Write the structure tokens for this entry.
Amino acid sequence: MTDSAAPVQLITGRSARNAAALFNWGNIVSLLLPFPLLIFWLGASMFVYAMNRHHPNPKVGHYTQQAAYRFYGITGFFVAAAMFLPVDLSYYLIAWALAALILLPWSIRDLLRIYRDSWEDQRLLREVQA
């Protein structure tokens, strides 16, 4: 089969931009409605990360990786710190507020950067299996 006859897959710039923004949107929604969404987002975020980290557009992988580093770093810190907190709801609300104060501005800043970035359509040659 010649190169001109090889099947081509189109990845639109809009699709790549949405993929890059997905992890940040998940962070924002899970922090605004922490129970039960934060628990579900912790699991779903691993799937989103695995899907988008090695996206054909390298910018998608970069934005996804940065959002994941922030989310997992903050949640990991507060899970470890929670072991030393007294069993009182107010301490956990303070921890949630601190996590939101750290993650929300970063996620919003990243979303603004993503939507201002230029996203080009990509054509990928798919391998044909005989």
User: Anything to note?
Assistant: Residues 89-116 form the longest helix (28 residues).
